[in-house]
Amino acid sequence: CYQRRVHGAGAFVLSYMSGETTLAILSSLLFSTCMVAVVGMRVSSAGDFLQVALAIFCVISAGESVGIIFCAFVYQVGFAVNLMSMVLTVATLMAGFLSPTMPVVLNYLNYASVLKYAAITTAIIEFKDLPLHCTKEQLTNGVCPTTNGNAILDLYNFLVWVDYRALAIVLMITLAFLYRLAAYMALHMSKMAQQE
Question: Which of 68, 82, 125, 150 is the least crowded, having the fewest Cβ atoms under 10 Å away?
Answer without folding.
Answer: 82
